[in-house]
Design a protein that fits this description.
This protein is mainly alpha-helical. The protein has 4 helices and 2 strands, in the order H-H-E-E-H-H.
Amino acid sequence: MGTRDRSRAPPARYIAEPTFHPTFLYELTWNLLLAATLVWLGRHRAIRPPGLFALYVAGYCAFRIVDEALRVDPAAHVLGMRWNLLLALAGTVIGLGGSPPRNAGPSGLSAGTSSRAATA
């Protein structure tokens, strides 16, 4: 009848895995939604570019946590976890910590806080 197309067969080390997730497609979709959300936030909320970048880092890394949980390929492990997962966790925490408070003024101080009180 015909020959089997071996170019579509999974590599031997992945034979035990029943399916593969198209993680590149998930990541593309997430990045487009994240970008659209951040553009909307930048135009409709009082979040300025440094805060938007911090939210981008947090959002991208938060999705990487989900993405790494779906992956079946080999990766370096540290403390029993994939190295990529640990970096994504750290990036999420740093991104969330890097976004300024909602009521921050141009100097980064919260509304109602004077610069004199901040330095005392």
